[in-house]
Specification:
rod-shaped, 64% helix, alpha+beta, three-stranded antiparallel β-sheet, 7 strands, four-stranded antiparallel β-sheet
Length: 287
Amino acid sequence: MGRKRKNKISTSSTTCSDSSIIQEPKLQQRSSEINDMDLKAVLDKLELLTEQTNSGFKQVHEDFDSFRHEIKSEISAIKTVIRDLEKAMNYTESEVEDLKKRNDEERTGREELSQKLENLEREMINLRKELQQEKEERINLEQYTRRENLIFNRIPESQSENCKETVKEIINDMGINADDIRFQAIHRLGRKLQTGFRPIIARFVSREDRDRVFSKKKHIKTLHPDAYITQDYARAIKEERKTLVKAMMIGRSQGMDNIKVLDKTLFIGNQKYNVKNLPANLQTTSD
């Protein structure tokens, strides 16, 4: 029995062994087929990957070429802008230089003009001084020519009067012998008035005679209460005296008893004033 089981086992082993022998070629063939299929798939994948890689490189090259062209265009545009900026800068520098040059020229011109103006101002100051000096000299000369004259004011006037005899009569009434006095000329001033009296101007030959009559001027009121005697002043001095006399009258109306006018000076006590420095309370609005 044991022998039979062994045979069975042996037979079974043989059978299995034979079966394996029979199936091994089939497995090898199958394995070969699988290997061939895998290799082909791998190759296909490699080929596909290669195509994709080539296509990717091609796209990269195309993109790179496009980018390079864009860069070239941008660089070209930037170069153009730089050239334009350089031109503009050069033009601006030229303009700046021109402006500096013009500014320097204008500054030089202004300095020259300023110097000319200063020179003109100095000349004007000198001319004013010379003009004032000339004016003073003219006034003094005019006054010098009038120093032998006296003006007899508010003396009654008649149609057939003799001015010389009228003046001599007044001088005699003042206590001076008129026969001892010589005159160059005696006459009324200005056109005949409808009302009032024209002043009489008497030109003495001797300054001493003129001063002697003028020293007794107050005595004229003995015969003619409204009359008075004044010196013959130059026109400019007369205008100044008008202002000073107005100031004197204002001062007297304010109670100033020690105020008087002599020549071109207003005296208030020991204080002296002229038309340029009159006290404010003695000035009139018209002055």
